[in-house]
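Hi support team,

I've been running sequence recovery on a batch of backbones for a student project. Most finish fine, but this one hangs at about 90% for roughly twenty minutes before it completes. I'm not sure whether the input is malformed or the queue is just slow. I've pasted the structure tokens below so you can try to reproduce it. Let me know if you need the job ID as well.

Thanks,
M.K.
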């Protein structure tokens, strides 16, 4: 599936479009899912062709959010533009937020501390980069509104470890129950969308990335080299340098993303026509499931906004 990265590629499985490939998070993998910062992996047969995932920044940035549901809920599941991936991030994060609430409720009932983990965060997609958002906010992750403070979390010992494991599994099942509504059709979409990596027009447009970086005095002939630089800036705590690279990335990737966006929209139109029955079911089931989760877990869906 497309790959999520803290900068989307569903790894959700993965923003690359979700940052885990299209598979759902289950069992003990839930702790990783809670961070929202795992880079989404490409399908195994295409992993060699995909660029290295962006670095995994701490989720600390504060950005505007909206809770307004999109007119077309399918845009949350089958994004074709960077702007639409904000909807996908919100949907993914909503499941992690509900799971985190279920985890903490379960642990509280057993008077057991929560295991150490990052709070739920919005995870961006590298295969479908949101260039305006990156230009403004850089590559740092964004914590989801309503996420619990994790500063007091600590490992459990003895019997508490078993309680933590059981509650983690319960929480994973919560996230999975939401993802089960849309993961099959979304995985199919990200699989098809990933074919654009090797489209001749997309590859031709991407050739300008290195020269564009060179014009900005940035030694990054390709995306792998570029994200290595981003990682260095982040590891050094160089916020100014990281934002300079983010603005350069937004500018230099735009020609390629303009081409890919055109191709992706055409592919998306065909995909929706070919999966009409699944999409009709999604239009009914997904809003109902979101409302159910908001009531049951006392959480609210939200989406990053410019």
């Amino acid at each position: 599936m497309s790959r999520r990265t803290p900068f989307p590629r569903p790894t959700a499985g993965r923003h690359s479009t979700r940052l885990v490939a299209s598979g759902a998070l289950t069992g003990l993998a839930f702790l990783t899912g809670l961070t929202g910062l795992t880079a989404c992996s490409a399908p195994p047969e295409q992993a060699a062709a995909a660029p290295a995932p962006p670095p995994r920044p701490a989720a600390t940035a504060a950005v505007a959010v909206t809770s307004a549901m999109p007119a077309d809920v399918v845009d949350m599941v089958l994004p074709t533009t960077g702007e639409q991936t904000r909807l996908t991030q919100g949907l993914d994060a909503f499941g992690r937020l509900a799971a985190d609430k279920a985890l903490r409720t379960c642990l509280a009932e057993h008077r057991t501390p929560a295991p150490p983990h990052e709070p739920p965060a919005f995870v961006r997609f590298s295969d479908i980069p949101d260039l305006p958002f990156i230009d403004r906010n850089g590559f740092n992750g964004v914590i989801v509104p309503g996420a619990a403070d994790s500063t007091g979390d600590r490992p459990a010992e003895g019997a508490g470890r078993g309680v933590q494991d059981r509650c983690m599994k319960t929480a994973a099942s919560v996230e999975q129950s939401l993802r089960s509504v849309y993961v099959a059709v979304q995985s199919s979409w990200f699989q098809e969308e990933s074919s654009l990596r090797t489209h001749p027009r997309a590859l031709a447009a991407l050739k300008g990335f290195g020269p564009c970086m060179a014009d900005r005095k940035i030694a990054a002939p390709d995306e792998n080299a570029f994200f290595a630089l981003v990682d260095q800036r982040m590891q050094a705590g160089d916020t100014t340098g990281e934002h300079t690279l983010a603005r350069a990335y937004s500018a230099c990737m735009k020609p390629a993303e303009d081409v890919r966006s055109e191709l992706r929209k055409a592919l998306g139109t065909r995909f929706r026509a070919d999966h009409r029955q699944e999409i009709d079911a999604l239009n009914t089931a997904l809003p109902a499931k979101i409302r159910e989760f908001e009531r049951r877990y006392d959480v609210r869906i939200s989406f990053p906004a410019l």
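--
Follow-up from support: It reproduced on our side and the slowdown came from queue contention, not your input. The beta strands are 4-5, 59-61, 64-66, 121-122, 124-125, 141-143, 303-305. No action needed from you.
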